[in-house]
Amino acid sequence: MKSFSQWRPHPWHGLDSGAEPPRRVHAYIEISPFDTVKFEVDKKSGYLRVDRSVRSSSQHPALYGFIPRTLCADRVGQLMPHAQCGDNDPLDICVISERPISRIEIIVNARVIGGLPMCDHGEADDKIIAVIDDDPFWSKVDDISEMPPAIIDRLMHYFLTYKFEPNKPHHVEIGEPYGFEHAAKVIEAALADYEDEYVSVPERRHIAD
Q1: Is residue 64 packed enough to be buried (19+ CB in 10 Å), middle (13-18) or exposed (0-12)?
Q2: Tens digits of per-residue pLDDT, 72-111?
Q3: Could you state, in order of their start, the residue ranges of all structural domains in the chain?
Q4: Whole-angstrom Cα distance, residue 48 to residue 96?
Q5: Are 125 and 186 in contact (CB under 8 A)?
Q6: Is 0.85 topped by the overall pTM?
Q7: Which residues, listed in sequence order, are joined to residue 132 by a DSSP beta bridge?
Q8: Which CATH class is domain 24-200?
Q9: DSSP state of 10
């Protein structure tokens, strides 16, 4: 009998992280470049929730979501020098596509090339950067250093400004973009943080067997 889920799986806990993490991962997409509000998966139900209206005029320059079965906790926080801890959310990922994609609540096969070290209110909130794995336009790109700088600049500008409110303190900082080597460490740390928090002892024994 073929295996399948009788009920809709929770996108954070019920989907797998990908075929070959940390290089090739699954990205569950919450926001497309065509969206003008911020959607976020409700942690309890797994359905998309309107998280907030975006005050900035910027629109997201790439597909945006998270890697299933990851968590930004102690290990992820320790990888960012100025962070006090992780943000206790799944690890965020931006997926660049040559063809426009307007759908959300989709799973994308993504090839990781780097990331942005974003610190939000003292919490590590890394943004992993990837390309669609079989996108012929980006087929030879394996590291963020091989991407056009304008694309990375747009991502940095968006994350530095999308929470900005006039006459209020701004608590978001982004360091220098990092390549695949450090992105791999962040992903592996997030996978380990998730296992510590959500995988029970019997499940660990079953995986080991």
Answers
A1: buried
A2: 999 999 999 989 999 999 999 999 999 999 999 999 999 9
A3: 24-200
A4: 21
A5: no
A6: yes
A7: 110
A8: alpha beta
A9: P
